[in-house]
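Summary for the steering committee. One of the milestones for this cycle was to obtain a three-dimensional model of the protein with iron/sulfur cluster bound, which we needed before selecting residues for the alanine scan. The sequence and ligand used are listed below.
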Amino acid sequence: MVAKKHVVMFSGGIGSWATGKRVAEAHGTENLVLLFADTLIEDEDLYRFLEEAASNIGGELVKVAEGRDPWQVFKDERFIGNSRADPCSKILKRRFLRRWLEENCDPSNTVVYLGIDWSEIHRFENAHAHWTPWVCEAPLCEKPYRMKQEMLADLEAEGIKQPRLYDMGFPHNNCGGFCIKAGQAHFKLLLEVMPERFAYHERKERELAAYLGKDVSILKDRRGGTTRPLTLMALRERVECGDAVDEHDWGGCGCVA
Ligand code: SF4
């Protein structure tokens, strides 16, 4: 009988570490793959975390990259991503990881694991459609339920320092603190803690708008009951002038579902 293969979608966040631990405990590490897709704009500390987390879990860490970053995808697709449409994660993660599965795994004896937890179970319900015919599971949606802070404490207890983006206050460790699904509060944080990185994305957004010849932006301004584009430059100027930004608008990041 062919041994079952276990493939964990390993993004570099706490959820992927905790998922990998549960899969290793349940099935061992002999046929375990921790699969990471690099968007090429990751935070430098993500690579330290990936290596330490993978050696703590066991199994084989496989790193792949489609070859473009999200801004190159937006240009090629002639569309800037936003909270409702995410060509970057579709092309650089879901589609590319799926191709890796097709080339390396047999759906009849492979289980794919997602780092989605019980608090976002709706995402797991949507995820099946993306991954079929692969059987997909989300061990963190099952008992014992763990809060993010508890998982981070578990990580520390294993002697691994959490990704530095969490120290800075970011809710995720993807794309170096950038995300087209992020909201105003998230980008304000990026401006405050990594102004050079914010400036890079502000410039890329401006370049893309000029290339497309359209008034496009990641963020939206919903003040006054109407929705208008809110560029990163306009957000920065608001912050610099002390104007209000939506401090509750963090947005959400989920690449694999
Ligand atoms: S983290 Fe955000 S910007 Fe990066 S690939 Fe995922 S959806 Fe796109």
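Key point for the committee: The radius of gyration is 19 Å.
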